[in-house]
Amino acid sequence: MKPFEFFKPATIGDASKILADYGREGRALAGGTDLLIRMKRGQWTPRAVVSLNRIAALRAMEMNGELQLGARVTLGEIIRSAEARGQFPVLARTASKMAGVQVRSLATVGGNLCNASPSADMAPPLIALGARADIAGRDHERILPLEDFFVGPGQNALVPGEILRAIFIPRPADGFFCSYVKLEHREAMDIAIAGVAVSAQLAKSAAEIRNCLDVRIVLGAVAPVPRRAKRAEEILRGNDLTRERIQEAARLAASEAQPIDDVRGSAWYRRQMIEVLTRRQLLALMTAPL
Amino acid sequence: MRDNLLRMAKMRFPILLVVNGEEHELEIDPRRTLLQTLREELELGGTHLGCDSGDCGACTVLLDGEPAPSCLVLAADCDGRAIVTVEGLLQNGEPHAVQKALVAQGGIQCGYCTPGIVVSSVALLRANPNPNEAEVREAIAGNLCRCTGYQKIVEAVLAAAK
Ligand SMILES: Cc1cc2nc3c(=O)[nH]c(=O)nc-3n(C[C@H](O)[C@H](O)[C@H](O)COP(=O)(O)OP(=O)(O)OC[C@H]3O[C@@H](n4cnc5c(N)ncnc54)[C@H](O)[C@@H]3O)c2cc1C
Ligand code: FES
Ligand code: FES
Question: Whose atoms come closest to the Cα of B107: which ligand?
Answer without folding.
Answer: 3
